[in-house]
Amino acid sequence: MKGIYGANEGSAIGVVKGIQESGKTGVVVVDAIDGKSLPKTVDTGYFWYDKTNIDQPEIQAVLYKVRP
């Protein structure tokens, strides 16, 4: 595994707990703290949507539909 990301406090705590419960040990290096260059963006697979793109097929494909 190369890394885990928690987008908010709850996610970050869950990540830490999961690692602790897994019993895995080792060295953890945070590239940003070590001064290493980081990618400008990271593709998370998520889409940002609003009224300007809500009707695009790639957005519609990931939305929940309410059944009548």
Automatic annotation (TrEMBL):
**InterPro entries referenced in this protein's UniProt entry, alphabetically:** Peripla_BP_I
The family database entries (Gene3D superfamilies) matched by this protein are listed as: 3.40.50.2300
Q: Which domain of life is it from?
A: Bacteria
Name recorded for this polypeptide: Uncharacterized protein
Please give the organism.
Virgisporangium ochraceum
Question: What are the top taxonomic ranks of the organism?
Answer: Bacteria, Bacillati, Actinomycetota, Actinomycetes, Micromonosporales
